[in-house]
């Protein structure tokens, strides 16, 4: 259909352009832009010939199609009929009405006949859209007020001490032991390939009983949550109108690759909502929706551990506050936290010992992802013993100087200075375009003194790090250390400009002034374009846009031309 629309629009374009030029002098009260949809859908659903208009075409297009496709029903209600009247007059007056068309008099009479109905249709469309918008707003309001809404806790979450995340290898190993994923796998394998399902009940009672026995479940209460989890995990998928099949990779769970394991676990993360109590009454069930998330966030805010008894009291109050039926639903559920804790334990997110529930590293990781999905800020970083040099450099960029120093000191305490220097410089070399990481790495390695000499010497082989290595080795009077070249100095300047450009235009212009007077900067621009820096062209372009001195701007544009042409 899209291709047909595009072809029809292209066919109509010259005719409509002529009409737009014709309208101001011949129909000054009309809006020619409103004719486009009518002409297009006349061509698509009524006639192959854009000039052929028969009696009944206007009723079909205006009353049947326009309410479905019009973008602005208010404007259409006010001006589409006059615009179509002008368009038909244009077609007739310029000889564009094809032979076989109804007369202009007949077409205009039909237009008068449908005008009131058309306006009513547009008003109905407006009312429907207003209703939809109100429903959307109500849905948003309801979502905002649900038990599982994280937003009311945003300030408390932002004020939490740094959350330390375990390395992927540990998380993947924990995910491999998740009971619910194993059960979802077994259910999918039992389903097999091409299993027919019913419209109202996917499985028959006998099939449910067989699945329960195969999985070793105590009863069938959890079977449909496991079915949905298998779909979430992509272990199970529809392969026809009434058949489902197991995915070919399902039997391989738990996967060997850590990334594949964690990707699968994350696919099922939103299944935590399946832990919410399910009651016989739908309204009561709805009143407790979000209870699993509500428990998780409160455990997180308590530092990762809470007493179940105190949670039960707090959540009972929250349920009663959020929904008029909350208290009734809580009572009807018996122990509403039973299903919540069972599912979270089965998905590896919490442990329960006696009256104490504790977030696992996997649960903390999952919560951080859920908060990130909601754009709620939380200070979460890898644990110090799991932090790579690149992690350290990346996270330090957003820390205060004091906090960054503390993080570096803790990280350094777990390795000798020589190894630390090598790791930092290797991390900085991974991405040549990241000047900030490079400068941070050079600064930290520079603080390690003579222990870093071997790492600096190795860094001389890396073009993006050579300027820093040569500078530091020379400053330390290392024997046979190469003197920094003019190109090295220019590279350091370009790194500085790159960082200041990321801070904003005022900071960037200030860094240009740090070079010296305009003539000094012009002299630098005449040679610095030769440096093969990853940001040379964009920096020269930015100088040309921002520097207040016209001569500098001219020199920057000249240098940019040379950099692009390589001469």
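Sequence proposed for the structure above (567 residues):
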């Amino acid at each position: 259909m899209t291709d047909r629309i595009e072809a029809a629009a292209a066919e109509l374009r010259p005719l409509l352009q002529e009409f737009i030029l014709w309208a101001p002098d011949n129909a000054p009260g009309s809006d020619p832009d409103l004719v486009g949809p009518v002409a297009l859908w006349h061509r698509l659903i009524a006639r192959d010939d854009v000039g052929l208009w028969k009696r009944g075409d206007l009723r079909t297009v205006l009353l049947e199609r326009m309410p479905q496709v019009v973008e602005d029903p208010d404007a259409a209600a006010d001006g589409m009929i006059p615009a179509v009247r002008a368009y038909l007059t244009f077609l007739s007056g310029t000889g564009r009405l094809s032979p076989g068309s109804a007369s202009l008099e007949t077409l205009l009479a039909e237009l008068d006949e449908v005008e009131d109905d058309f306006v009513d249709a547009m008003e109905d469309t407006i009312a429907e859209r207003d209703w939809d918008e109100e429903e959307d707003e109500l849905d948003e309001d309801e979502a905002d007020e649900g038990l599982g809404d994280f937003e009311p806790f945003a300030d408390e979450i932002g004020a939490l001490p740094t959350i330390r995340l375990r390395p992927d290898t540990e998380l993947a190993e924990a995910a491999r032991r998740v009971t619910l994923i194993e059960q979802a796998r077994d259910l999918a394998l039992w389903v097999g390939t091409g299993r027919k399902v019913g419209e109202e009940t996917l499985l028959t009672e006998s099939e449910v009983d067989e699945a329960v026995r195969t999985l070793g479940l105590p009863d069938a209460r959890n079977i449909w949550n496991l079915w949905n989890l298998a779909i979430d995990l992509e272990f199970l998928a529809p392969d026809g109108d009434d058949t489902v099949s197991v995915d070919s990779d399902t039997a391989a769970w738990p996967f060997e690759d850590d990334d594949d394991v964690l990707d699968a676990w994350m696919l099922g993360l939103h299944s935590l909502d399946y832990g919410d109590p399910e009651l016989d009454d739908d309204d009561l069930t709805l009143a407790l929706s979000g209870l699993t998330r509500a428990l998780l966030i409160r455990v997180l805010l308590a530092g990762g551990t809470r007493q179940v008894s105190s949670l039960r009291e707090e959540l009972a109050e929250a349920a009663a506050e959020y929904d008029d039926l909350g208290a009734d639903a809580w009572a009807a559920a018996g122990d509403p936290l039973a299903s919540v804790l069972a599912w979270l334990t089965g998905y590896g997110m919490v442990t329960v010992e006696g009256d104490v529930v504790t977030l696992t590293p996997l649960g903390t990781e999952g919560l951080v992802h859920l908060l990130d999905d909601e754009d709620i800020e939380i200070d979460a970083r890898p644990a110090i013993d799991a932090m790579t040099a690149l992690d350290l450099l990346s996270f330090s960029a957003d820390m205060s100087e004091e906090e960054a120093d503390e993080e570096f000191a803790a990280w350094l305490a777990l390795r000798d200075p020589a190894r630390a220097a090598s790791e930092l410089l290797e991390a900085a070399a991974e991405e040549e375009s990241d000047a900030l990481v490079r400068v941070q790495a050079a600064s930290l390695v520079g603080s390690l003194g003579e222990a870093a000499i071997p790492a600096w010497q190795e860094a001389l082989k890396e073009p993006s790090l050579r300027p820093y290595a040569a500078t530091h080795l020379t400053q330390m009077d290392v024997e046979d250390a190469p003197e920094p070249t003019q190109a090295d100095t220019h590279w350091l300047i370009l790194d500085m400009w790159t960082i200041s450009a990321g801070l904003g235009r005022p900071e960037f212009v200030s860094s240009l002034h740090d070079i010296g007077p305009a003539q000094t900067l012009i002299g630098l621009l005449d040679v610095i374009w030769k440096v093969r820096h990853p940001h040379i062209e964009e920096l020269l372009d930015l100088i040309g846009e921002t520097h207040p001195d016209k001569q500098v701007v001219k020199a920057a544009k000249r240098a940019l031309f040379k950099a692009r042409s390589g001469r």
